[in-house]
Amino acid sequence: MPLIAMTREMGSLGKDVAAGLAERTRRKVVYQEIIEPLANKMRLRKSHVERFLEGKSGIWERLTTDRTSLSIFTADETFRFLKDGSTAVIRGWGAVHLLKSVPHVIRVRICAPLETRISRMMERLATDNRSTVESEIELSEEAHTAITKRHFNVNWRDAENYDLVLCTERLSVDECVDEIENMMKRPRFQETPESVRMVEDLALEWSVRSALRREARTADVAITVKGEGGVVRLLGVVDTAVHSDAVAEVARSVEGVASVDNQLRAAGASGSRYRREG
Questions:
Q1: Alpha carbon 223 to its chain's center
Q2: Cα separation of 268 and 253, whole Å?
Q3: pTM of the model as a whole
């Protein structure tokens, strides 16, 4: 079954659309579920990660948040949920852009005019303080813009990044769910053995990157990781042969890795260093 990667604007009812879709398909929405394992991997408080993602972090929180680690661990967790057959929607987390190459992922944006969203949020929060609500929406969108620009070099508002854009100014939540369900029935968005293998290979690549980032000996390496059928290729330059061995050792320890093709080259060494490791 296809999976939905969704981006929504605050006050657009995207959260309700995701919940409605999950109810109809009897599967779950993933959003908050990523935060706790992400915080654990980064050794930060859950509230620290939440505030950073919402654009509400103070200077100390911004300085102590490693954005490269955040990107790697987020991708690792996103692919973990993509492989989970009980997931219907991954909401936010850059999933729309991260998963754009996966044929059975449908990229959806839920939006509405700003005035409509402000009115809805004021009603939902039972407040007449328009400036506060407007500020919350602005913070949320600035944070989303910064994250997608930094990690994917895209503008998340551009329609070309989506398969389906739905505006809830006149469409109801149920009508939006209907439209997404219609997309899910189309042959081009169905899982195939090839698309499942693609997900497995990409998931393995990000699992290896995540493991390398968490290991002190390899946390700072900047290399290319390629996965195919359980075989992981390591490409790039590291400081020494010792670093190369450490990277291969960590990669071999990752669940799902059948063998490691270590093509890392030590800086200053002549030629490339090729070695096949089981």
A1: 20
A2: 28
A3: 0.81
The two tokens of residue 83 are 């492989």
DSSP label at residue 157: T
Instruction: Describe the strand order of the beta sheet including 275-277 as a list of residue ranges.
Output: 224-228, 231-238, 259-266, 275-277
If you count them, how many residues does the chain have? 278
Tell me which amino acid residue 104 is. H
Cβ distance 263 to 272 under 8 Å?
Answer: yes
Q: What is the pLDDT along the chain (278 residues), one digit of tens a residue?
A: 899 999 999 999 999 999 999 999 999 998 877 777 777 777 667 666 665 565 555 544 444 445 677 788 888 888 988 887 888 999 887 889 989 999 999 999 999 999 999 999 999 999 999 999 999 899 888 877 877 887 778 888 889 999 999 999 999 999 999 999 999 999 999 999 999 999 999 999 999 999 999 899 998 888 899 999 999 999 999 988 898 999 999 999 999 999 999 999 988 655 444 444 44
Distance separating alpha carbons of residues 19 and 27, to the nearest angstrom? 9
Can you read off the two tokens belonging to residue 198? 């693609």
Q: Which two tokens stand for residue 159?
A: 């329609």
Task: Beginning with the edge strand found earlier in the chain, give each strand of the sheet holding 105-111 in spatial order.
Answer: 28-30, 87-91, 3-8, 105-111, 164-167
Question: What does R_g of the chain's alpha carbons equal in angstroms?
Answer: 21
